[in-house]
Design brief:
- The protein is built from eight helices and seven strands.
- It has helices at residues 2-7, 11-16, 48-59, 80-89, 98-110, 115-122, 127-133, 138-157; strands at residues 22-23, 28-31, 42-45, 70-71, 74-75, 174-176, 182-184.
- The chain is 43% helix and 10% strand.
- It has a three-stranded antiparallel sheet, with no helix packed on it. A two-stranded antiparallel ribbon has the order 4-5.
- Helix 5 runs antiparallel to helix 6 (115-122).
- By secondary structure, the chain is mainly α.
Length: 191
């Protein structure tokens, strides 16, 4: 499960991953096109927790099983029932395994990874589908409002544009900002 949380891969891709796709010394996993839902191969660099997950899997490796993730030498089958039971026992409600993929994508975006790179790592071909994974939460909105407030407070303390003044009964003046763009306003709304 940790692999899904950290990688953003689909469950089927994780289940079919074989050791021939893993280069631990090189720190990379190559997903073969035939293992991918959209038939596009991709590269997953390994570092930090992902590398540790793969190293732990290597310690459990069985020579009679080509799969990276297995149960007693057998490929992992359908584990939705076990997942549901584990979530209930942990008090996590009705999470589904695919929520790990959504969480991984969301974490990548929140970490500041460019969206095109996130899409390449997770295997999203279209922006429309990717956007369905990049869910905005109430805490995201609260954080955005706080950051906007902080930004505006800084602006009133150290203005970046020249003060704009409307001459009495006259038109607004046009002034350039420090970046050369025109700023048009009758007057500053905030003193």
């Amino acid at each position: 499960m940790s692999f899904l949380y950290w990688s953003g891969w689909r469950v089927g891709e994780m289940r079919r991953l074989e050791w021939r796709d893993v280069d631990l010394p090189g720190g990379v996993v190559r997903l073969r096109p035939e293992l991918s839902k959209n038939k596009d191969g991709r590269l997953l660099p390994l570092s930090g927790e992902l590398l540790e997950i793969m190293e732990r899997a290597a310690e459990q490796r069985r020579l009679d099983c080509p799969n990276v993730f297995h149960v007693g030498g057998e490929p992992i089958g359908d584990f939705r029932k076990a997942w549901k039971t584990a979530c209930k026992a942990a008090g996590l409600g009705s999470l589904i395994v695919h929520d790990l993929r959504r969480t991984a994508v969301r974490n990548m975006v929140r970490a500041g990874i460019p969206e095109r790179v996130c899409m390449a790592l997770s295997g999203h071909k279209t922006r429309a589908i990717f956007d369905r994974y990049n869910i905005v939460s109430e805490s995201d909105l609260t954080s955005a409002a706080a950051r906007l407030n902080e930004h505006l407070q800084q602006q009133t303390q150290t203005p970046k544009t020249a003060a704009l003044v409307r001459p009495e009964n006259g038109p607004a003046e046009r002034t350039r900002t420090e970046h050369g763009q025109f700023a048009e306003s009758a007057e500053r709304a905030v003193a």
